[in-house]
Amino acid sequence: ALVLVSTKFYSCDPVKALSLAAAVEMLHTATLIHDDLIDNSLFRRGNPTLNASWGDEETVLAGNYLFARAATFAAETESVRVVSIFAQTLMSICGGELKQTLDSDEGHLTRGYYYQRIYSKTASLFAASGEMGALLSEAPEPKVQALRDYGHNLGVAFQIVDDILDFVGNEGDLGKPIGSDLRQGIITLPTIYFLQAHPEDEAVTRVLSGRYGGDDEVRTAVEMIKESGAIESSTAEAKRFAARSRDALSTLPHNEYRQAMLDLTDFVVERRK
After folding, report:
1. Residue 91's pLDDT is what?
2. Ramachandran quadrant class, 261 (left: phi over 0; alpha: psi -120 to 50; beta: rest)
């Protein structure tokens, strides 16, 4: 959706716009397929993951196929710059996942590390979607940067909200257990706020390190984080990035497409699943 709306501010070939949108969607799907495999996730949004249904080898190949198909769609835009941004985004996503896998725990408790990780994981694709859509419509360079900035800030807000929902969301809506990130040892913004305020805590760090005894310990850790004010601090941070995304649109024409982006920003910060 972000790609298609970004192409609407100026003149764009609708066929090329659809090709670009398909490229981004396939790239995103491929990253989710490989992400589920790396995390050994058996369900996504309540449905079995590909690795749960097919097995590891077939899942890797399916993800690789979608990466290649996405690149084909990107090439159909006939824009060297769009294809270059597409490739850079893929490198950013894969590099971020590799860094997260290889890094030790040291340094993970900083907001700086967290923002680097979610840029690679999520915001880079949002930013590229806005930028590539603008380029395809031959927007002036300042407008291209504005739509990239919009996507970047929206993507950060989206991921922060996603991380918050891991603590406060409904398991039925999320399609996964509450506290899934904690169980996998993934340190997100609410956990960072909590541990910075409670550096001597053992209950949460025990779950993060995989040394917990069962679901009751996970639920206790989740409740501790929820009661600490970390959720409210993280929500305020998401809203700050959402405000930056709205500000990035200030120089764009006042029309239905700008309003659609403002509505999208509202949805991102208010969503419950």
Report:
1. 95
2. alpha
Confidence of residue 200 (pLDDT cuts 50, 70, 90): confident
Q: Which two tokens stand for residue 2?
A: 């972000």
What DSSP letter does each residue of 52-105 carry, written as one string? Answer: HHT-HHHHHHHHHHHHHHHHHHHHTT--HHHHHHHHHHHHHHHHHHHHHHH--S
- Please, is 24 exposed, middle or buried when counting C-beta atoms within 10 Å of its C-beta (0-12, 13-18, 19+)? buried
Question: Considering the domain 2-270 in this protein, what is its CATH number?
Answer: 1.10.600.10
Going by the DSSP 8-state scheme, the letter that residue 185 receives in this structure is: T
Domain ranges in the chain?
Answer: 2-270
Q: How far is residue 70's CA from residue 64's CA, in Å, rounded to a whole number?
A: 10
pLDDT for 104 equals: 56
55 phi/psi in degrees, rounded to 5: 110, 165
Band (19; pLDDT cuts 50, 70, 90): very high
Spatial separation of the C-alpha atoms in residues 150 and 173, rounded to whole Å: 27
- Closest to 222 measured CA to CA, from 152, 171, 147: 171
Question: What are the backbone dihedrals phi and psi of residue 44, each rounded to the nearest 5 degrees, phi first?
Answer: -135, 125
pTM, rounded to two decimals: 0.93
| Residues near 122 by beta carbon (within 8 Å), at least 6 away in sequence | 155, 156, 158, 159, 162
Residues 6+ apart with CB under 8 A from 191: 181, 182, 204, 208, 225, 230
Assigned token pair, 248? 């990035």
Between helices 124-136 and 14-39, what is the axis angle to 10°? 170
**Per-residue pLDDT for 232 more than 80?**
yes
Burial degree of 244 (CB within 10 A; 0-12, 13-18, 19+): middle
Q: What is the DSSP letter of 169?
A: S
